[in-house]
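One chain is below:
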Amino acid sequence: MRKKDRKLVLEDGKEFYGYGFGASVERVCEVVFNTSPVGYQEIASDPSYTDQFVTMTYPLIGNYGITDDDFESVNPSIGGMIVGDYNDSPSNFRAVKTLSELLEDCNAPGITGVDTRRLTRSIRDYGSRRAIMTGVDTPLDVALARIQSTPIPNDAVSRVSCKKKRYSRTADPIFNVVAIDCGMKLNLVRSLKRFSCNVVIVPYNTPAEEILFMRPDGVFVSNGPGDPTDVPEVVDTVKRLRGSVPVFGVCLGHQIISLAYGAKTYKLKFGHRGGNHPVKNLLTNRIEITSQNHSYAVDAESLECTNLKITHINLLDNTVEGVECSDDRVFSVQYHPESAPGPQDSLYLFSRFTHYMAESKENA
């Protein structure tokens, strides 16, 4: 019988023993959990999970392998994965490799055989914490010292954003959109293209003047990892763009837009991650089941002193899920309307974006 060879040590001293898969490296990251029953490839390749160990609450992971068509980034930057029962023999005619091989390719460790229910309860009860994934023989005091000596990164967006401008075109385009890449999921680009948008993807630190020089019909501010206050240059760009062109933001982009209007953000106890969050649309009174992945939220009270109106709220904890300034044709949501993985209740938001762009073109 195989002996346990890897362990996860939380910064409060809790230890979880298991079997290693993926890359054989030691790493310190924030440990979080995701409640999605499917979509581990999209999760592993989502740039928003940079510097994070993701605990999958669904027990069986890896059973359908990795395909060429389901990546959310070209170079996955996840910190590592923690699963209850890892399957290294996938059954799927589309599979081209295993999850372990994907993690090896992106130099990320994984651990299986862990009591993920106990770990998830710990995160839920005490909050997200930093942890180290290391060899089973590493003494506890050494592991804790390595966690303490590892600096907390605040440059995640700069690491995952594209380094130069690139184009993604669609047949018979109606609109030209500039997408500010803060760690953008590929399915957001695909979704914009399905709504007749040619997309120009630009680095996160592209100045507003350069974006306006491209004469876009609209600007999209993407999802991404980390604290929104770590990217003041993007906040400043949105400040300069608002009122000049329609702007649509998702996830980190939602937080950045809120900061640009003078609101504040704060870190959640354990974040929202998974495809089962009920959100109420205050404009229609409809309930949407949403896919989410974020650690930070917009402070509702701080929005009272801005020109933004709250359009969506989370029914689990009443956090702000959407804002809008109709005069500027600017709006954003905290969740992922492109749904990869997750429900497809919120695709209408891309229609709202194209409606704003059409109005702007008519009034130009």
